[in-house]
Amino acid sequence: MRSPIKRFPVPDEFVSWSVEYPNYKPIFYESDVLSGKSWADPKIEDEFFFPKWNELDGKVNRVSHSGEYKIVENRPQNPCGRTGIVGRGLLGRWGPNHAADPIVTRWKRDTSGKKLTDEKTGLNILQMVAIQRIDSKEWAIPGGMVDPGEKVSETVKREFMEEALSTTVDLSERLTQFFNSGIEVYSGYVDDPRNTDNAWMETVAFNFHDETGAVVGDINLCAGDDAGKVKWMDLNSSVHLYASHKNIVEIVVNRLKAFW
Ligand code: RP5
Ligand code: MG
Ligand code: MG
């Protein structure tokens, strides 16, 4: 969901905290939705809230992939700079909000099963299972938040099942094996529209590649949870994807030496 709040403008040259921005007057915003939710932290001033920043805090992972983040005026500071909003905005956790993203790929083929290539470069065309988010209507990787105590390898599988297969029932042996053989392609900050000066998205993205197309190539896709639509999307440099998902997908395309 895009924040309904108008951010204080931050020109590119003032994003970095190391550059003085004396006129910076960020807007405070925390969604009412967060109050009392088990997946959200309390307000920073809550007398019973003693977060362990930069550590595994019970089951909540407050460690950033970008290294140690600063605590300024009792609040975690976004390691990528100013955003125009203070407070958590729409995000549940102060500091890093951990997600996981499954990039499920296959080669584009014709009806006879022959791999299709880009005419100019002769490179094969890669396809990814993409979902259309209900909140912003943008196409995206079918990722989601890591539950407290959950392994990211479980999160990617669970989120793919919820958003792209609309199921929570156990997968077949073959699919289970497929989802156990993912390759981690990225871990770090996500340039998500919900990020604020004190709360931001981070992800671990895994590639699950079906080389022959026999495992997930003809799987029954069905959009569920926060996905309105699901499809196999051709990947190339003109795709538009939510947040910084395009950069993450490009890593997979390069890894598999596909057309971009
Ligand atoms: C993105 O938001 C992550 O890369 C992940 O895809 C997603 C997680 O948030 P929800 O889909 O649960 O809203 O930044
Ligand atoms: Mg989800
Ligand atoms: Mg999601």
Explained architecture:
The chain has 260 residues and is an alpha+beta fold. It has three helices and 13 strands, in the order ββββββββββααβββα. The chain starts with 26 loop residues before the first strand and ends in a 5-residue tail after the last helix. The relative contact order is 0.19. Bound molecules: 5-O-phosphono-beta-D-ribofuranose (RP5) and magnesium ion (2 copies).
Per CATH, what is the topology of the domain at 98-255? Nucleoside Triphosphate Pyrophosphohydrolase
Q: H/E order of the elements?
A: EEEEEEEEEEHHEEEH
Task: Characterize the overall form.
Answer: globular
The assigned structural class equals alpha+beta
Major sheet: size, sense and barrel closure? 7 strands, mixed
Give the overall pLDDT as a whole number. 94
* Residues in helices, as a percent range: 10-25%
Rg over CA atoms, rounded to whole Å, is: 20 Å
Which homologous superfamily in CATH is the superfamily of the domain at 98-255? Nucleoside Triphosphate Pyrophosphohydrolase
Separation, N- and C-terminal Cα atoms: 29 Å
* CATH level 1 class label of the domain at 98-255: Alpha Beta
The distinct bound ligands, ions and cofactors come out as: 5-O-phosphono-beta-D-ribofuranose, magnesium ion
Annotation, overall tally of beta strands: 13
| Range of strand content | 25-35%
CATH architecture identity of the domain at 98-255: Alpha-Beta Complex
State the helix count. Answer: 3
Low-pLDDT ranges: none
